[in-house]
Amino acid sequence: MFITFEGPDGSGKSTQVPLLVDFLRAQGYQVFQTREPGGTPIGDQVRAVLHDLRNAEMHPHTEILLYAASRAQLVAQEIRPRLAAGEIVVCDRYADSTLAYQGYGHGLDLATLRLILDFATGRLVPDLTLLLDISAEDGLQRRQHAAQHGEEWNRMDAQSLAFHQRVREGYDRLMAADPARWVRLSGAGNRSAIQADIRAAVHERLPPRT
Ligand code: TYD
């Protein structure tokens, strides 16, 4: 089973993903946890280029191809082999982030993006995508607060509020186009309540234990 997490910056995915992974492992499942961009030695090098605030002149097409490069490596090196071995793969962001951020956020052609995504992933689509939903304003505020307390403030965080609003609307459209794959959960509220919602959504769809 291939589970992905999506949501605006600051939606709390990085807190919630490890909690879900711990829970699934405690249930006896083999789980592989990963994230994008990154997740492989090559992907982590690409991530550093993408996040570097000195790379402000990066062209949007360069950005897409770098995300796609990181993802192609992750799918080939980790995700496909793990799924083939019967593991549950939980990934913090995947192809939908490219459609939301580069497509809806930057206004790049969605049909072209889909071609690039299909090439990078070999058309591997998640079985379940959890959208942690939070307003663009709240998300940015959380990120700013975290950055003041030592967390990374990256090139995407530094985009305008209007950009983050377009990203959030993009998620709404992606979800509307494929409602069977997506579950929307509120990312506002307390951490354990959100985790309980996530577990319930995943539990319904879990495969039998191997
Ligand atoms: P990250 O630090 O992983 O943030 P988060 O915890 O919000 O996932 O940074 C990833 C950033 O990259 C985030 O702003 C979303 C962006 N992104 C894209 O724009 N396109 C993509 O395809 C992916 C995977 C991420």
Notes on the structure:
This protein starts with a strand and ends in a 7-residue tail after the last helix. The model has no long low-confidence stretch (mean pLDDT 94). The chain has a five-stranded parallel beta sheet with strand order 2-3-1-4-5, with helices on both faces. Helix 4 (95-105) runs antiparallel to helix 5 (110-121) and helix 4 (95-105) packs across helix 7. It has one domain (2-203): P-loop containing nucleotide triphosphate hydrolases (Rossmann fold, 3-Layer(aba) Sandwich), CATH 3.40.50.300. It is an alpha/beta fold. It is globular, with a radius of gyration of 16 Å. It has helices at 13-26, 41-51, 60-84, 95-105, 110-121, 136-148, 161-177, 191-203; strands at 2-6, 31-35, 88-92, 128-133, 182-186. Residues 9, 13-14, 36-37, 67, 92-93, 97-98, 101-102, 154, 156 line the site of thymidine-5'-diphosphate. Thymidine-5'-diphosphate binds at residues 9, 13-14, 36-37, 67, 92-93, 97-98, 101-102, 154, 156.
**Which stretches are poorly predicted, pLDDT < 50 over at least 5 residues?**
none
CATH architect. name: 3-Layer(aba) Sandwich
Structural class: alpha/beta
Q: How many E-type strands?
A: 5
Number of H/I helices:
8
How are helices and strands ordered from N to C? EHEHHEHHEHHEH
The first-to-last residue Cα distance is 12 Å
Report the CATH C-level class: Alpha Beta
Give the strand order, joined by hyphens, for the main sheet.
2-3-1-4-5
Shape: globular
Main beta sheet: 5 strands, parallel
CATH names the topology as: Rossmann fold
Proportion in β-strands:
5-15%
Task: Spell out the CATH superfamily.
Answer: P-loop containing nucleotide triphosphate hydrolases
The set of bound ligands, ions and cofactors reads: thymidine-5'-diphosphate
Mean pLDDT reading? 94
Give the total of domains.
Answer: 1
Helix amount: 55-70%
Global Rg:
16 Å
